[in-house]
Amino acid sequence: YSASVDDAPDLLGALNASTEKIFSQAMKPITKLVTSMREFNFDGSSSESGDKYETFEFRELRQVVPPHEEEECPVLVLVDSKGLRHPLPLLCPEQGKKGQQVIEALEHGFKSALDHADSTANWDELRSALRQESRVAPPRPETEDDTKNALRDAGSITLEVFEVERWMLMANEWQVPCLPTDKDLRWRWVDSTGRKHPCLDASLDRNAAASKKVPPCELESLFQKSGDWMVSLSDQTDSNGWSYGLSWRASTWEPKPGLFDHLRRRKWTSVYK
User: Fold this and answer.
1) What is the C-alpha R_g of the chain?
2) Pairing state of beta strands 75-80 and 61-65?
3) Euclidean distance between CA atoms 132 and 261, whole angstroms
4) In terms of DSSP H, where are the helices of the chain?
5) Over the stretch 46-73, which tens digit does the pLDDT of each residue have?
6) Could you report the per-residue pLDDT of 209-235, keeping only the tens digit for each?
């Protein structure tokens, strides 16, 4: 682990914030925690404070002193080969005191380094305990921002409509699909399954709907439109929102048309309150 000269680190707080990243590294042998602790700075952020750090290597570990049960803020103590004691407060500022199972698992992890020929610690038990605690932990109290966001988004709904066109070789341009096999795509405005959109203006026939340049779709009168139709853009679309594929059921859609990509689609959205 890595500890500030002036302040002992909240080891479990840091481990809890970065458990998945630490243990996703192919379970490489861990003989010190300096890299992880410095990188995450105990709260998930990168450390640029310039504080002085000391590095404790497990090969220097000689004893693991468990916390006293009566302690309000339990502290695990590591004793090195020089007899120096390194306290590890087991308190996570955001989540409070850790469960006894997690504390014991951390203690066993350090002790496993004492028994290993290469002073490598085994964190399987700790990983399991942290995951178990996260599943049974009480929900995080709502903050003022949570309440504001909930009030802001309450009752809102986003209507999504897909516009679809087919490359017509003879005309050398993109047009509304017109082949018999295109089925509902010939309406131009469809849902995510490629079927005629259920919110399409019922007064329009297929040709009238296909002639529209923006989705002729509306929600029922219970909702009021709060903005204009917007084309969704992403790294999977071109600058106009189109993505290209072989057919509607294509497994991949690309931002540029390939040789056999004769279909293109783009998503429109509108927010209602």
Assistant:
1) 29
2) antiparallel
3) 48
4) 11-23, 34-40, 100-115, 124-136, 144-153, 206-210
5) 444 444 445 667 788 888 888 776 666 7
6) 999 999 999 987 778 888 899 999 999
Residue written as token pair 């297929």: 206
> Which residues, 6+ apart, have CB-to-CB distance to 252 below 8 Å?
245
Q: How far is CA 224 from CA 152, 198, 213, 271, in A?
A: 15, 18, 21, 9
CA distance 109 to 107: 5
Helices vs strands, H then E, count in the chain: 6, 13
Give percent helix, percent strand, percent coil of the chain, each to the nearest 5: 25, 25, 50
d(CA 153, CA 34): 42
pTM over 0.85: no
Three-state SS for 129?
Answer: helix
